[in-house]
């Protein structure tokens, strides 16, 4: 299947960690799943039978994106400045 734009890819993608396991194979091929899970948490059969593409982001871009996400959805109840967030991010603090 040839796709001409990124919107078509996005329509095909699901978050692997949010799809019930019994529904993973129900999706027509090619199945494209996205995940933020570390590679060692993914099922072994996925690595044996599927293809895995690991994408790494520039840490600066990741920090900016994560900061804006935290501001938008406010799950962590963080309302500090970007400088404060960056210190927590750099130190790996989850509070």
From TrEMBL:
Q: Name one Pfam family in it.
A: Sulfotransfer_1
What top-level branch of life does the organism fall under?
Answer: Eukaryota
Limits of the Sulfotransferase domain: 4-92
Which keywords accompany this UniProt record?
Answer: Transferase
- InterPro entries, per this entry? P-loop_NTPase, Sulfotransferase_dom
Q: Which family does it belong to?
A: Belongs to the sulfotransferase 1 family.
Q: Write down what this protein is called.
A: Sulfotransferase domain-containing protein
Q: Which organism is it from?
A: Tegillarca granosa
